[in-house]
């Protein structure tokens, strides 16, 4: 059994290779592609039984890779999509019986995907290559593309150094960012990490609907805000869902939490 992996994030691809080696040692990873064009070439050249395809890649998306394959190749390769999209897209994959892995990939979810793939013996090449099967496959891919939310070009991950390691932190997991000397502190539910990206650059890269600037040096994940407390001097502090400390709001940004 052979598989290829396609992901333009080298650390995420390396992580998936390592976890597959641990959880499915019989599976041979025949190649790792850094973009959609390489993925298509690998699938057509190596003819793997399985392909783990990122949704969003340079050149071709994961869905476009599958569309570009010759019918006999497409029907002989089981595809698992890898996605960083929200629950809406995940539900779409589930309804259409196309498996997915949600980044960052957990061992439990990967083990479930492996079990599903092992139960599915690969279809012989050309077994479903008639016009009706091709039309159904194309319709499935088209509907999946329509259901997927349009990807916003906002920062989804930050890379923080932890000793000699680099930790990938999804921005959804960040409670708030705060300027700290030459670094920026990243506060998650259970950690405080440091990155080199200044607050000004983060402000330009993050989704402004999710991260609000509440101070010159502070960006808060609005999904974390539980209450905004106003004191008798007009100062505002925020209580967050997953952090014990209060976050101060500057006077220049207090209007964001003006009492109605």
- List SSEs in N-to-C order: EHEHEHHEHEHHEEEEEHEEEEE
CATH class of the largest domain: Alpha Beta
Number of domains as seen in the coordinates: 2
Strand elements, count: 15
Helix content range: 25-40%
What is the structural class? alpha/beta
What does this structure look like?
The structure is a single chain. This protein is an alpha/beta fold and 260 residues long. The chain folds into 2 domains: 2-147, Response regulator (Rossmann fold); 157-257, OB fold (Dihydrolipoamide Acetyltransferase, E2P), CATH 2.40.50.1020. The protein is 32% helix and 30% strand. The protein has helices spanning 10-23, 36-46, 62-68, 71-76, 87-95, 107-119, 131-147, 199-205; strands spanning 2-6, 28-33, 50-54, 78-83, 100-102, 157-162, 165-170, 174-180, 183-188, 192-195, 211-215, 218-221, 225-230, 236-240, 247-249. The strands form 4 sheets. A 5-stranded parallel beta sheet has the order 2-1-3-4-5, with helices on both faces. The chain has a 5-stranded antiparallel beta sheet with strand order 10-9-8-12-11, with no helix packed on it. Helix 2 packs across helix 3 (62-68). The N and C termini lie far apart (62 Å). Residues 123-129 have low confidence and may be disordered.
